[in-house]
Amino acid sequence: MEKVRCGSAMSLSIREQEEAQLLLVVEDLLGRFYQSHTSSEEKKKLETELHDLRTTRFTWQYCLDNLDKFHNQYLWFFGSTTVEAVLSRWSSLSASETAYLRIGLLKLLTNYTTATPALHREKVAQILAVVASFQFPTDYPEYIEHILELLQERFPIGLVLARALGDSVTQKKYVVSLQWQERFKAAVTPHIPDILRTLEPYFAYYLASVVEPRNVSDPPTSIEQYTNELLHMLQQYFGWIEMQGVEPTLAEALLQMGRLRPTTDETVVPVSALTALTELYYRQQLLAPATSKQIVLGVKELLQQPGLPSAEELYQDKLSDLVRLCAKRELTAKHELDWEPFLESFYQYTVNMRILQLFYEHLDTWIVIYQVAWDKQVSYTDPVIHRLLSEVFPLKLSTLTMERMLHPNEGWHEQLAMCDLDVSDEEISELQKYYNLGLELVENIVNLAPQRIYQAVLSPLVTSDDSPYRRGLHMLHTIAIRPDIVVPDASKCFTDFIPACQMVARLGVLLNDKVPAIVAWLLQEQLELFTLLADCLQPFDRFYRWQGEAQKIIVATTQMMNTFRSLLMQIEPFKGTMACHKPPAFTEQQLKRLITQLTKILQTTEHQQPREWRLLMKEFASVLLHVAFSELLKPRCLYEYLDEAFLACNIFAHEATTRQMIRQAVINPLLTKWDADSATDASSAAVGQLALRREYLTRYVRTMAQTVLSVEPAAWLLTYDAESQYRTQLQYRLELQDLTELIRCYGYFDTSAKALLASTLRDVIERALYIYTKTNGRGLQIPGPAHAPQSQPLPRARETDGEGDDPLPSFCRAVIEVLQVQLGEPFLQQVIRVFLGQARTDAYAMQQHRSLISLLGIFVLIVRQPGNRTLIADIVQLCVGDVLPVALGQAEPRSAETHGRLCIALFELFDAILIHRWRYFVPPQGPAQPLAPALSHESQYAAILQGYGLVIMNSDDSELVHNVLASLRVLNERNSLFREPYFAEHFAARFTQAMLHVLVEAKGDLYQQMLVSLLYELVTIDRRKFYDLTVTVCPALQPELRDELCQCTDMPTFERLTNQFVDIARATAITLRPLASTAGTTSNNNNNNNNNNNNNNNNNNNNNNNNNSGVGGVQF
User: Fold this and answer.
1) Closest by alpha carbon to 123, among 175, 68, 81?
2) Residues 623, 617: Cα–Cα separation, whole Å
3) What are phi and psi of 1109, to 5 degrees?
4) Residue 757 backbone dihedrals phi, psi, to 5 degrees
């Protein structure tokens, strides 16, 4: 007997020694693996050794039995991930193995204490929750009972397990399919109310610790920690449980926990409680009436807390969110709630708000309240809400809004001014955003109480001499009469004038039908003031005389003109002698004077202007444009009122947007038919007017394109000095860019207007093509660095499409988009052949992507239109032979964005060719042809399809891949691409395999629906081949599931089976790679190296007739 005992002890000692030695080996490998100086190659070897140990001695069973004995952090994490990895091959485990895993995890978790690291508890609980998602309720019916028991007996451990339950429902972990998750969610949902009721005693315990902390034995920090974890768990539960399960007692407890504490400034738990309540309202379901009533009452009490205005900003932010969502949802619920104290409390909170950003949010909440009341028609079902929002609060809110806009709280203007220091011309300033919120609120109040807003806001603003609006007008009037006068309070006056002016404009538009007389009076007054300013301040830029006050004066004038334009859009068109229901707001002489003054002001030649001045010029141009496009004047009268000097002047000193509006204001009346004069022959008069309009338009277009029409490309570098060269080059670009934008504005005009425009532009197009040809496709460029002149520099030219220096391709693209029919096919062929010829000879430009994007856009327009057959062969040859290798090549980092746009443009062209020119490749089958006709241009057809396949496999550009997949879908629907004999024989299997591989990859989630629908169509080509391909991509797929997938004939079932296929394929791919998620930088470095190698291989293969290899060895 002693020998047996000695043998047992000896064998035990040997086993312990072996285990100790194993742990030392694993710890050593992990320590070396995580050292920062370990190379990528060495880490790869270490990873292989660890994997071998994991499959031999360091098994998941061993780790599960000894996990509580692993004290080294690397060792414990490696052991836990070893246990976790078994979940991804759950279907291969036996019943005894699953039971062993479940029992071991539960034992491990229940033995943990509060001293156990939180990471350990959470990890084990998460693994156990995933096991439960596989087995509950059939094989693990005690799961919910275990949670309830632990919550009652060992609350911290039970809380961790309850939180893990929510994780397994809301997150897709461990390759749990969507159907599996939904089944688990449906199984546990009926038990959630039991879990919530089990938590109620803890709520009472926490509240007691706040009121009577001396009667509570646990330390305050521990109570706060677990309470915060509990609230985070509830927030997660509220995202997916049934709303009817939230009882009023639970809502009341959360509201009590969300109150501020009188004895401390700590707000961690109150903030978490408010966040949990807010999560309730992000759901689309309605709460029970009793719960809604409890929340509205509780939120009202939260708004009445004495220390609320001085509370922490985060707490106030969360409370504001809760108020907004509560009002938005409950106002439409029709629960007959008491809204008056709620809204009154929120109004008082808004009045007392001292935090600028939160005041923003409060205004936005009031906007939401009025929008809900108006849009959802709550006023028809709840007279109390209608009375409150139309009688009680309009005067209060509009008064508060105007006071805060004109007299912000201390420091608010300074905060807004600091935020606006780096604001560009195109961005909205923070101050203007502040104004916009107030204006939007008043606009929404007008919907329910128009008369009250007129009496309380608009009427006092425009009639009272003490209003900021009238004071600002009086100040401008004073400056116009006495330009040299020093006004001490001008800055303050104009600061208040700007929001007041905006309020007048907004309300004048909304109340125009109710108070038309006051709108007409305002327009007359503003017009008189503008003409007075224009007459007295000649030149108009004499505003600079006031130095420090100039900015405010310019901004004030800009705002006045914006108000004038807004109100001008509301008046009746001027009909001359025709009868009108209302008298016109202006006489024809007044409009003539307005146009004359605007054209004089806009003839500026000053380039270096401050931002405020540029915005003022933009507003003047906008007013002129509105007059041109409205019916206030007849087109002929309008054109004749334009100053001759204005029509002939160079307006490139203005910004591009301002120039564009000026150009349209001039050209629009010339493209619009003029009324017949008193000539006896109306037809001859019309012909004469057309000739006159063509003459005027030609003259103006020549003014716009002076450089394009006059420069000689062969001599300009020799005859011009450096400054003249720079100006000529920039002027050339600006002229073509302006013409490009101008042409695009007239795409919606009628045929006669387009014909007139095309006839005037023909000379410009021909001259620009001549320059393009003579300069070998480079346009006007100065060799070497170009130096801007020191005196009067021109504004910087815009980038055309980011693809090159010459804007001509963009210009021609706009011409073809708008005027293709009017120019005629012979002329278009001439244009296209110029580009084709230049593209073949300019290899450098091809490699640099210069002009290619616009050129491909031109080709798309040509391909989509019928006719132009003689051009198609040349277009396809250029794109397949020259552009496609560039697009599939590796982009340089500095040109990656341009390269991406080039690829998108190229495959958009391929899509157009295959859809609109299908017969170029697949001739129609005649009645005497029993067999399919021979394919035309086979090599080009194959090259395009190869390009499609390479994009699907290798591209990381989601937009490009989406476009290619969408193109395949449309081609199959319209032309039966997948059943076309050549495609079915040479490409169907390759595309199928490529799509399967991409679907299994992580990026496949981005295109899952499109890939599945395409695969469903491809399966029907050859089901046996599809079976073999699924074996290649996912060997671990069960045979019965594979058979069902390959024989499926309906789309819903095919989609479900494909999702299972993807889950299993991904599980197989990651089972043996558990370190990938823990290696951090190392894995990233390895991936980067692999990606670099793949890119290099792709480049080499691209140079070999595009026969490169994609994922999974798919050959294209």
Assistant:
1) 81
2) 10
3) -100, 135
4) -65, -40
3-state helix, strand, coil in the chain (%, to 5): 75, 0, 25
pLDDT (tens digit, 9 = 90+) per residue, 500-555? Answer: 888 888 888 888 877 777 778 888 888 888 888 887 766 666 555 554 567 777 88
Instruction: Indicate if 373 and 468 belong to the same structural domain.
Output: no
Torsion sign over Cα 374, 375, 381, 384: negative
Residue type, 551: Q
37 to each of 32, 33, 667, 1080, how far by Cα in Å? 9, 9, 70, 14
Give the mean pLDDT of 689-709.
91
In 3D space, the residue among 1074, 1082, 1076, 1083 whose CA is nearest the CA of residue 81 turns out to be 1074
User: What are the C-alpha distances in Å from 779 to residues 732, 808, 976?
Assistant: 9, 8, 44
Q: What is the DSSP string of 739-800?
A: HHHHHHTTTTS-HHHHHHHHHHHHHHHHHHHHHHHHTTT--S--SS-----SSSPPPPPPPS
Report CA Rg, the chain.
38
Cα-Cα-Cα-Cα dihedral sign, residues 800, 804, 807, 808: negative
Domain end marker among 567, 587, 620: 567
Counting residues of the chain whose pLDDT is more than 90, the rounded percentage is 29
CA quadruple 1034, 1036, 1040, 1044: dihedral, nearest 10: -20
Peptide bond connecting 137 to the previous residue in cis, omega within 30 degrees of 0: yes
Beta bridge partners of 1109: 1115
Q: Is the pLDDT of residue 678 over 60?
A: no
Residue 1072 covered by a domain: yes
Asked if the model's pLDDT at residue 952 lies above 60, the reply is yes
The model carries a pTM of 0.71
Length of the chain in residues, anyone? 1116
600 sits in which H/E element = helix 588-601
Give CA–CA dist 599/651, Å, rounded: 11
Report whether 703 contacts 666 (CB < 8 A): no
| Other C-beta atoms lying within 10 Å of the C-beta of residue 905 | 22
Q: Where does residue 767 rank: exposed (0-12), middle (13-18), buried (19+ CB within 10 A)?
A: middle
Closest CA to 627 of 660, 588, 680: 588
Q: Alpha carbon 797 to chain centroid distance? A: 28
Residues 682, 622, single domain; the answer is yes
Question: Which stretch of DSSP H or E encloses residue 675?
Answer: none
The range of the structural domain enclosing residue 640 comes to 572-691
- Contacts of range 714-723, beta carbons closer than 8 Å, 24 or more positions apart: 714/774, 716/780, 717/782, 717/783, 722/787, 722/789, 723/789
Q: Is the same domain home to 958 and 1073?
A: yes
- Taking the C-alpha atoms of residue 995 and residue 555, their distance in angstroms, rounded to an integer, is 58
* CA atoms of 158 and 165, how far apart (whole Å): 11
Task: Count Cβ atoms within 10 A of the Cβ of residue 874 and give its class: 0-12 exposed, 13-18 middle, 19 or more buried.
Answer: middle
Nearest to 379, CA basis, from 334, 337, 346, 443: 334
Burial 1062-1092 (b: 16+ CB within 10 A, else e): bbbbbbbebbeebbeeebeebbeebeeeeee
**Distance of alpha carbon 846 from alpha carbon 828, whole angstroms:** 22
Which has the closest alpha carbon to 22: 61, 45, 50, 64? 50
In a domain, 883, yes or no: no
Query: ∠ at Cα 725 (720, 730), nearest 5°?
Result: 150
- Are residues 557 and 601 both part of a single domain? no
Q: Looking up tokens 């949010």, which residue turns up?
A: 361
**How far is it, in rounded angstroms, from Cα 760 to Cα 681?**
27
For the record, the structure tokens of 398 come out as 């509009």
Whole-angstrom CA distances from 372 to 383, 442, 471, 966 are 14, 15, 37, 39
d(CA 398, CA 406): 12
Q: Are residues 434 and 524 in the same domain?
A: no
pLDDT bin (cut points 50, 70, 90) of residue 891 is low
Q: Are 432 and 420 in contact (CB under 8 A)?
A: no
Say if residue 466 is in the same domain as residue 325: no
Asked if 422 and 468 sit in the same domain, the reply is no
